[in-house]
């Protein structure tokens, strides 16, 4: 790896413990490579520990063939990626269960500043959909979805898609539509623009 100097390294692991060990070795401060992790199973706590190691991407191995080309490109461009089947793990069981009531109330207060359409867009961002997927779900253009996301970020005083998704998760906004991000490409966790 040191001689070739790859921009992205794809690492496959069977369990969370071996994934964490690999990530600790590969994602240190002096690591010049983005790591995309493939794993078979994730628990809520294990996925949180994995994400705390700051990999460039995390994908479920079962969907890797379809998702990997796009994920590697996004990771090489500096955008962290979370596979669509993992969005439910993060957005479903994890955040609200571990979310303090004060954080949930604060997030819900922030939502009062948003229009109905912005709330719809924020919900879909929280479910992991990309701008083109949001556009298709709401029958709007991709540029309009992008504009709504920019407006949401401005009104909430946040920077980026990940922070917007976190507000949606904390407020319990996700999962009300019954939509799933599966089947599409993973949403890059990138800026609002």
Automatic annotation (TrEMBL):
Alphabetical list of CDD domains matching this protein: LuxR_C_like (cd06170)
SMART domains recorded? HTH_LUXR (SM00421)
Keyword Transcription in the entry? The reply is yes
Q: Which residue numbers delimit the HTH luxR-type domain?
A: 107-172
List, alphabetically, the Pfam families matched. Answer: GerE
Keywords recorded for this protein, A-Z: DNA-binding, Transcription, Transcription regulation
> Which GO terms label this protein's molecular function in UniProt?
DNA binding
One record GO biological process: regulation of DNA-templated transcription
Q: Does the keyword DNA-binding apply?
A: yes
What is the superkingdom listed in this entry's lineage? Bacteria
Q: Which InterPro entries match?
A: Sig_transdc_resp-reg_C-effctor, Tscrpt_reg_LuxR_C, WH-like_DNA-bd_sf
This chain's protein is named HTH luxR-type domain-containing protein
Species for this entry? Streptomyces silvensis
